[in-house]
Amino acid sequence: MNLSNYLVLSVLLFSIGATTVLVRRNAIIVFMGVELMLNAANLAFVTFARMHGDLTGQVVAFFVMVVAAAEVVVGLAIIVAIYRTRRSASVDDVNLLKS
Amino acid sequence: MTTMLHAGSVLAGIAEAGRTTTGEEVLFWILAPVMVLAALGLIFARRTVYAALSVILVMVSLAVLYVAQEAPFLGIVQVIVYTGAVMMLFLFVLMLVGVDVADTFADTLGAHRWVAALFGIGLGAVLISVVLRAADIAPQGLTAANEGGNPSGVARIIFGDYVITLQVVGILLITAAVGAIVLTHKERLVAKVGQRERADARIAAGEVLTPLPAPGVYARSNAMDVPALGPDGRPLEHSVSRVLRIRGQQRSVAEVHAHLDPGTGTGSTPPERTITGEEQVR
After folding, report:
1. What is the pLDDT of residues A1-52, one digit of tens each?
2. ∠B40-A24-B176 over CA atoms, to 5°?
3. Where is the chain membrane-spanning (chain A) (predicted)?
């Protein structure tokens, strides 16, 4: 099996995550789409590390995971804060600055 | 001579490691469709909890693939950080925000959904065409790099080449934690209502101060759904749980009385106050 199969899988997951971000309205699901994209990128990093015989790819994937954890904490806090004031978790309802 | 032989065997080992085994191929072709289907569930799931569960499935499968790809450290970190911490945090917030929040799949813009789908398919096509150019790279495998153990190799790079990055990431994590606390902090606008204030308010309102009477205890029925009898023999409506009353699941004294054998209806109740079931409810 060619290792590029892993890359194709990673691309598929990335595209599905990007489509989720565009299609869904629930802020939590949009956020999970972003997480899926980060994970897909991690799979590509790990595969490239194996292709090139260099562990740096795995280290970069590790840093991506750490930054994603920090991002999730802040993002979910924002969602909770918005939900408290607007009673909604839909990205369409956050339009106070409009007009 | 021996060194050259040694180098040759190492090269052969690397070439061996770069190729995938049959077991890994089978693993990949089982996991990959499952992962893609679960990821599609993120787009199409009506309920947010199902979407979260399918993402958890994708992430666990990714951890398995990492271990198969000679990255056991990342595989374990993936399980601990992503499935263990991040997705549990997602589920917490999901339950906090309310799982019954209606997720309107219908868009305000009708064409938006199709444009987004087109974008997704186009992005996938472009990226696949780019990624397939890497198909002819001869994979070298990580056998040499993982010689002292994969975690040790990763740690050598993290604490060797990327020390500054590690420090910055640490600062980032602390900032994120503080930011989350600040964002979810709520200023108290009114004084806290404690037990004492509640008791004072109840006395001031003139409500019942004692506990409510327990539901009925009879010779034939001591169930929750039958009202208790007062000292005067009349049923006490409010002794039955409010939930049962609202659901209409309570039984009246008359219903219980109908099941009683008329010859044995004495018990501890004096004859002149025998319950007939006709008593007025108060």
Report:
1. 788 889 999 999 999 999 999 888 888 889 999 999 999 999 999 999 998 8
2. 100
3. 6-23, 28-48, 60-83
* A61 chain-B contacts, CB cut-off 8 A: 71, 74
CB-nearest partner of A76 from B28, B71, B93: B93
- Report which DSSP code applies to B47: S
A87 has pLDDT over 80: no
State the Cα–Cα distance between residues A33 and A24, nearest whole angstrom: 9
Separation CA B43–CA B53 (nearest Å): 13
Amino acid in the structure at residue B279? E
Q: Where are the domains of chain A?
A: 4-86
Nearest Cα residue in chain B from A41: B62
CA distance B9 to A54: 19
Distance from C-alpha of B158 to C-alpha of B149, rounded to nearest angstrom:
14
Q: Bridge partners of B229?
A: B235
The answer regarding whether domain A4-86 maps to CATH 1.10.287.3510 reads yes
Amino acid letter, B230 = G
Tell me the C-alpha distance between B180 and B45, whole Å: 28
pLDDT digits (tens, 9 = 90+) for B130-142: 988 877 777 788 8
The complex's ipTM works out to 0.91
Using alpha carbons, list the distances in angstroms from residue B56 to A46, B88, B243.
Answer: 19, 9, 37
